[in-house]
Specification:
Order of helices and strands: HHHHEHEHEHEEHEHEHEHEEHEE
Strand order of the largest sheet: 2-1-3-4-5-11
Number of helices: 12
Largest sheet: 6 strands, parallel
Number of strands: 12
Strand content: 15-25%
Helix content: 40-55%
Shape: elongated
Structural class: alpha/beta
C-alpha cells in the first residue's frame, strides 16, 4: 500500500474562482443546457486556469461513464510491438475485461506529442481508466495521469519507490532461480543478456543474476553482461559479442524467450552445442519456448494472473478514486526443458 494520490482542484474551488455555484460548474462540465453563454465561458476559463479535471467516479455515478479502458504502450520503437510479450498481455487483459462490458482501447505513445495528445483525450472523459505497459525509468506519463486523478495501473514499475498502482512479477527471484539452476548443473562461467537498462524490470533481473552468483562465491565481471532490448536480433548480437569476449562461457540467462531464441541462433552459428557446451535460459515462457531447438528452459511469468490483477486493481480505483496505491508482485516459476 502507498500514499494517497496528490490532490487537484475541486469543483467547489472552480466555482469560487468563477464566482458561480457548484451546480453551475457541474452543468458546464456535463455540457447541460440552461447556462448563460457568458457564465459558461467564465467557468471554462476557471477550469483552464486551475487545471481542473472532472472526477470520473462521480460522473460514473451519474451514468456518464465512458465504458472504456485505455491500454497505453509507451515504447518508442514500434517494432517492439511485434514481440510475443505484447500480444500475450493484450490477450490476458482483454480476457479479464470480457465480462465487464468495457472496451479495451489500444494506444501507442511513442513521443512527447503522443503523450500530450493522449492526456488531453483521457482527461476529456473518453476513458474510465488507464493501463500502462513498457514503462521506462524517466517516463512522466504515470505521474501526469495520477495528477489528473485518472485511475491508473502499471504493468511493472519505474523504480523501487513507484507511487502509482502496479502489478509486477518477481523478477529478482525469477532470475536468481534461473542462475541457481545453471550453477546446480555445474556451470561456472554464466553470462546474461539483459533488456534495456533504463527499465526497472531489467535492473531487477540483473540483480537476481548477481545475487545467485554471489551466493555461490562467484563474481561476474562487467564483460559477462551484454545489454539487449528483448528482441531476437539483440539476442543474436549480444551472444556473438559474449562468445568473442569469453569463449569459455558455459551458461546464459537471457532477458526474454525471444532474446534467448536469438542467442540460440548465434550459438549454432558459432558451432556451440546447447546444452552440452552452453546452457541457455529465457524469461517469460511464451509458446515460442516450446518451438525452439532445443526447447527452451525459461522463467514463467503468470501473464493470465497479471492481466486479471491489473484489471481488478483498476476497477477498484474506478469505484473508489481516493483508494491508496496498491502494489502487487506475483511469483515466477522456473520451467526446465532441454536447453538447460
Amino acid at each position: 500500500m502507498g500514499k494517497r494520490r496528490p490532490g487537484s482542484p475541486t469543483l467547489e474551488e472552480v466555482a469560487a474562482h468563477a464566482g458561480v455555484g457548484r451546480g453551475t460548474v457541474s452543468r458546464v462540465v456535463n455540457n447541460a443546457a440552461g447556462v448563460k453563454e457568458s457564465t459558461r465561458r467564465a467557468v471554462q476559463q476557471a477550469i483552464a486556469e486551475l487545471g481542473y479535471v472532472p472526477n470520473l467516479a462521480a460522473r460514473s455515478l451519474a451514468g456518464r461513464r465512458a465504458d472504456a479502458v485505455a491500454l497505453v504502450m509507451t515504447e518508442p520503437d514500434w517494432r517492439k510491438f511485434a514481440e510475443p510479450f505484447f500480444s500475450e498481455i493484450v490477450r490476458s487483459l482483454g480476457d479479464a475485461l470480457s465480462d465487464t462490458g468495457m472496451q479495451l482501447l489500444l494506444t501507442l505513445v511513442r513521443s512527447d506529442t503522443d503523450r500530450e495528445r493522449f492526456l488531453e483525450y483521457a482527461r476529456g472523459g473518453r476513458v474510465d481508466g488507464v493501463l500502462v505497459m513498457s514503462v521506462h525509468a524517466d517516463d512522466p506519463l504515470p505521474d501526469r495521469l495520477a495528477e489528473a486523478r485518472l485511475p491508473t495501473v502499471l504493468l511493472g514499475r519505474r523504480s523501487a519507490d513507484e507511487h502509482v498502482s502496479y502489478v509486477d512479477a518477481d523478477n529478482v527471484g525469477g532470475a536468481r532461480s534461473a542462475v541457481a539452476h545453471l550453477l546446480d548443473k555445474g556451470r561456472r562461467t554464466i553470462a546474461t543478456i539483459t533488456g534495456p537498462l533504463d527499465m526497472y524490470v531489467t535492473r531487477c533481473r540483473l540483480r537476481g543474476y548477481h545475487e545467485a552468483l554471489a551466493h555461490a562465491g562467484l563474481d561476474a565481471p562487467p564483460s559477462w553482461v551484454a545489454e539487449g532490448d528483448f528482441t531476437a536480433e539483440s539476442g543474436r548480437r549480444a551472444m556473438t559479442r559474449l562468445i568473442e569476449r569469453h569463449p569459455e562461457i558455459d551458461g546464459v540467462l537471457a532477458a526474454s524467450d525471444t532474446t534467448a531464441a536469438g542467442a540460440l541462433e548465434a550459438l549454432r552459428a558459432a558451432g556451440r552445442r546447447v546444452p552440452e557446451d552452453v546452457a541457455v535460459i529465457g524469461f517469460d515462457d511464451f509458446p515460442l519456448a516450446e518451438r525452439t531447438e532445443p526447447r527452451l528452459t525459461t522463467v514463467r511469468q503468470p501473464l493470465e494472473e497479471i492481466g486479471r490483477a491489473m484489471v481488478r486493481l483498476l476497477l477498484e480505483e474506478m469505484e473508489e478514486s481516493s483508494v491508496a496505491w496498491r502494489h502487487v508482485i506475483l511469483r515466477t516459476e522456473l520451467v526446465v526443458r532441454e536447453s538447460a
